[in-house]
Backbone:
């Protein structure tokens, strides 16, 4: 009996996934729930288990290809019969562009997938382009806008409207049903055959006047971006275009935190089973700051401010193949020990590709820690739709002035990048001062 292996839906908004690596080859015997292949989506990288025991009879989707959810990517023969062809498809050169509505598109030639928190429309359900629409490559902003719901696309098709030409009020400019209905009611529906705006150069960082990446005769090596790197590139450019970025830097005296940590780290490890690093102290300070300054724990929706009632801390984790930001949900309810356990658990599972889609969604504020690599401080880019991100610099001993005397103290620079559309300098500084107060006057009984 043949069992189809399908591309799973790794979250409500996920509509496609990229096959990163096959862990088995055609002809191999597999057991139920044994890791079969690795995928990359807009939200998470994960290993997908086999749905059945048997022999992997056929691999239908090669490594690097992106397909819509529920697409059959392989076939397992439960009877255990050997396949007619016991080898996986050999890597092929870049294939021609797929026809309209095709479920599979090569990742190397396809536009980068949507950034986190933006739903991508199923490829198989994509309507034909509106009359008069350009067949040229779309810019990042156009791709984000046109990845609207099926209802919006259907209305656009019926009225001959090019979605990319509308200004949406949804996340990252996505056109909502209300946007397109308001456009039609205002008499702005495009007539069939109407000319559309000329396309903008495609690519995550395409400037107005592109400069060649290399010169003729220059010695180079061309390596395609991984799916994760393409998503990071798109998301970073989208964030810079969306938010008015401003960064301010505070010097933090970590002397008291360092003393508490040195005195309690052994007992903490024995009692809770995790190392006591500086990060739980910093997370506690961030929670205190967000509770006192709720503007920093919010988002912008059009001209409305969305205040988040829960504090969901995103903690950036550097991986060998990219960067991922798992989220500690309801951090305001956790103790220092609880924050330490949650951070270590998420980081470990991020590095072994065991995160669930919901564990990288819903963040309301992000902490990134480049200081572990020696960085003094940085100006991190905001993770949309958040309005701020904290960058932690290296924590080290320095000579400073304390009570009119030179002293050796454990110090660090913390930089906060914030969206000036909502967060003014006074608001950002109030948050940072609250964080500074928590760290410099840390309550030892909390550890």
Residues:
């Amino acid at each position: 009996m043949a069992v189809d292996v399908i591309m799973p839906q790794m979250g409500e908004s996920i509509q496609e996934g990229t096959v990163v690596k096959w862990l088995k080859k055609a002809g191999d015997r597999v057991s139920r729930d044994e890791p079969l292949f690795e995928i990359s989506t807009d939200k998470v990288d994960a290993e997908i288990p086999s749905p059945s025991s048997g022999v992997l009879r056929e691999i239908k989707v090669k490594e690097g290809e992106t397909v819509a959810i529920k697409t059959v990517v392989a076939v397992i023969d439960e009877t255990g019969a050997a396949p007619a062809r016991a080898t996986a498809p050999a890597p092929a050169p870049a294939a021609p562009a797929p026809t309209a509505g095709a479920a599979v598109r090569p990742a190397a030639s396809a536009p980068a997938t949507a950034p986190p928190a933006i739903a991508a429309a199923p490829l198989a359900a994509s309507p034909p382009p509106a009359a008069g629409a350009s067949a040229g490559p779309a810019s990042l902003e156009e791709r984000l806008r046109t990845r609207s719901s099926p209802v919006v696309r259907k209305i656009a098709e019926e009225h001959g409207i090019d979605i990319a030409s509308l200004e949406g009020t949804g996340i990252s400019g996505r056109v909502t049903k209300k946007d397109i209905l308001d456009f039609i009611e205002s008499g702005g529906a495009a007539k069939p055959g109407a000319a559309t705006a000329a396309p903008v150069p495609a690519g995550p960082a395409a400037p107005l006047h592109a400069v060649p990446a290399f010169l003729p005769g220059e010695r180079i090596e061309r390596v395609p971006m991984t799916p994760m790197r393409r998503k990071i590139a798109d998301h970073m450019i989208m964030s810079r275009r969306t938010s008015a970025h401003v960064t301010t830097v505070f010097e933090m005296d970590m002397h008291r935190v360092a003393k508490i940590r040195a005195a309690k780290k052994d007992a903490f490890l024995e009692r809770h089973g995790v190392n006591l690093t500086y990060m739980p102290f910093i997370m506690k300070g961030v929670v205190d700051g967000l509770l006192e300054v709720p503007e920093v724990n919010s988002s912008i929706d059009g001209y409305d401010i969305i205040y988040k009632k829960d504090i969901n801390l995103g903690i950036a984790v550097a991986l060998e193949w990219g960067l991922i930001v798992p989220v500690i949900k309801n951090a305001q309810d956790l103790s220092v020990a609880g924050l330490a356990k949650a951070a270590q658990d998420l980081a470990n599972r991020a590095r072994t590709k065991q995160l669930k889609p919901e564990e990288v969604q819903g963040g309301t504020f992000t902490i990134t820690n480049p200081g572990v690599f020696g960085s003094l401080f940085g100006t991190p880019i905001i993770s949309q739709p958040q309005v701020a991100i904290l960058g932690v610099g290296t924590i080290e001993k320095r000579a400073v002035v304390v009570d009119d005397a030179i002293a050796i103290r454990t110090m660090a620079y913390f930089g906060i990048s914030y969206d000036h559309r909502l967060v003014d300098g006074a608001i950002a500084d109030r948050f940072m001062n609250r964080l500074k107060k928590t760290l410099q006057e840390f309550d030892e009984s909390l550890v």
Remarks:
- Residues 11 and 357 are 6 Å apart (CA to CA).
- The helical segments are 140-146, 150-159, 177-185, 227-242, 255-272, 279-292, 336-351, 425-440.
- The first helix runs from residue 140 to 146.
